[in-house]
Amino acid sequence: MDRRENLKVLLTGTVATGFLLSMGCGQDDKQKAEEIIQSGLYGRTPEEITQDKKLMSETFFSAKEKKIVSMISDIIIPKDDTSCSASEAGVPDFIEFMMKDYPKFQVPMRGGMMWLENFSQATYGKPFIDISPDERISLIDKIAYPDTADADMKFGVHFFNLMRNLTCTGFFTSKEGIKDLGYVGNRPNQWDGVPDAVLKKHGLAYDQKTLDQCLKISDQQKIAQWDEKGNLIG
Predict the structure, then answer these.
(1) Cβ–Cβ under 8 Å, residues 211 and 219
(2) Where are the domains of the chain?
(3) With b meaning 16 or more CB within 10 Å and e meaning fewer, what string describes 46-64?
(4) pLDDT, greater one: 198 or 232
(5) How far is Cα 56 from Cα 186, in angstroms, rounded to an integer?
(6) What is the pTM of this model?
């Protein structure tokens, strides 16, 4: 089962979002936009920034719990020839943040990990982090498919559904995940006017001034200039 390819099919139509910057397209503008985005301040109110800093200063997962989260996220989205694993994309940190930003996740997450630990002890006599990779897959396979899971796996299924949703959200909204999807967002194109065939159909044509001032591809990055009467001069 190619988990990443299946997830990409599900998410390609819904993850596609991007930034719309009210800035120019010059190199200085691009650098400023990048600095704002990297700072984490873009689109945030002062109250939201304060709340984010507060949450980032807190810790929810223990070291052992964080390791379990990393292991499961990498089972869901493992490293392959084209992209990194979920943990390498920072998914465990994303899930840590979500536990604090949306406290309703905390009980299902921590309870689910306790259930998984008990299941691992009952099956292999060891904690989940100490069993082999194949043994982990064997346990996860019992809770990863809701339609075929046994009735007594119901609690584990709910836990894995939560993990899968958070992992996919974290990965496919990361820089690495967006690259893996192949999503490039809005990009400027070059417009060279209404096609000649359409103009001829309606008995129209561009005058030479319009062709020279408005439809020269080489000038499309230049900022238009106007005279006092509103006439385009360059």
Answers:
(1) no
(2) 3-14+24-181, 191-234
(3) eeeeeebeeeeeeebbeee
(4) 198
(5) 31
(6) 0.65
